[in-house]
Specification:
The protein is an alpha+beta fold. The chain has one domain: Cytochrome p450 (Orthogonal Bundle), CATH 1.10.630.10. It is 47% helix and 11% strand. The chain is built from 17 helices and twelve strands. The strands form four sheets. Strands 1-2-8-5-3 form a five-stranded mixed beta sheet, with helices on both faces. It has a three-stranded antiparallel beta sheet with strand order 4-12-9. A hairpin with a 2-residue loop joins strand 6 and strand 7. Helix 5 packs parallel to helix 17 and helix 13 packs across helix 14. The structure holds protoporphyrin IX containing FE. The site of protoporphyrin IX containing FE has 27 residues, from helix 12, helix 13 and helix 17.
Length: 403
Amino acid sequence: MELSTAPPTAGPTSDLDPFADAFLVDPFPALEELRETGPVVYLPRYDVWAVARHQDVHAVLRDHRRFSSAAGVGLGDLTTDAYSWRRPSLILEVDPPTHTAHRAVVAKTMSPRAMQTFQEVFDVEAAALADRLVALGRFDAVADLAEPFPSVVFPRALGAEGDTRDALLAYGSLSFNAIGPANRHLEAALERARGVPELIAEKCRREALRPGSIGIALHDAAAAAGLTEDQATQLVRSLFSAGVDTTVSGLAFAVLAFARHREQWQLVRDDPSLARNAFDEVVRHQSPVTGFFRTTTTEVVWDDVVIPARRKVMVLFAGANRDPRHWDRPEDFDVRRRTAGNLGYGAGAHVCAGMTIARMEGEALIRALAARVDSWHLEGDPEPRLNNSLRGLSRLPVRVRSQ
Ligand code: HEM
């Protein structure tokens, strides 16, 4: 779909640059400003509109007829050079009814039995990892704790053979950087991921996946639904690309939150059944995925602002998750908070397809650590990892105290 170049119509505007380094490190002050500026705000710098209030983010995400994903969920349109490194996703970048059919294939593989398999693997691996970390005492909570689970344990459960860690991390970084403009972050990610898309595509083929794995189940479900082998391979790729860096980021932010709020860690230690909610609260509070885009399919009047057809709208999950119109004390990290309404996983037709898996990973690790770690101590400043749409840390030196 060609994007239109019609001039914007009246409504509040902001000179915010949602891809400037300051915003990528800490978007929350600017998001507050954006929420106060209006329900929908024009950003002339990129010639797009933005929504950051909970009510509007939720409504746009649920309105796929007027706010489409088919021109891509990034700033650019899918035909631009920035996207030439891969074909459009068959799940993220399509609208119903095609989306519904593809999503059903993915959902079929996430059966209760498959989830049980994931759970068992995660619990065993989490206990082993937690033992290793406690024995180390001091470590980097990104490289040693947050990365191994999503980039080694999860892909293995999905059926990937061999060492996929570096390739998957490079691929995830590229996928999320490609949401933004062709800036230095995207250029660096393209450079780092040279040859990686081909390698990942190879790993997602039926013959490359371990027999009996979730990946093979996805190929079977796709074939039963009449999809081609090539389409099935692309759907497996979507799980690999969406499911790694996001969870790494969530786990790293969890450790940071517990190091900064010791009383919250004590609450989880006292009642480990809080582990699941605690991870959801991390995803709400930090919103690893800051914001994606939609494209208007028709002229849309949103709170008296006219958005012409075929224009990009930035949907800021991170803005919604700190909106005081929806949340009580939104800035506070509170593991006992009711997290219903958390938009960190999106909402509507495209709500995260791996949410259950992410939650299981988070819960398994937090539980295993809560059984062993008395308290977390920062051994230096956390280093942010700059990415155009995925907030994260590149380094988090910590020390753990344990009995
Ligand atoms: C804390 C971890 C995670 C976060 C914060 C997260 C966040 C998100 C968000 C915000 C979306 C919505 C995109 C949109 O509306 O355009 C999404 C979609 C998606 N996620 Fe996740 N995700 C996480 C983990 C995972 C995992 C572990 C997997 C794979 C097992 C996964 C697979 C997907 C897929 C396939 C989609 C596309 C769904 C669709 O378009 O129908 N995600 N995720």
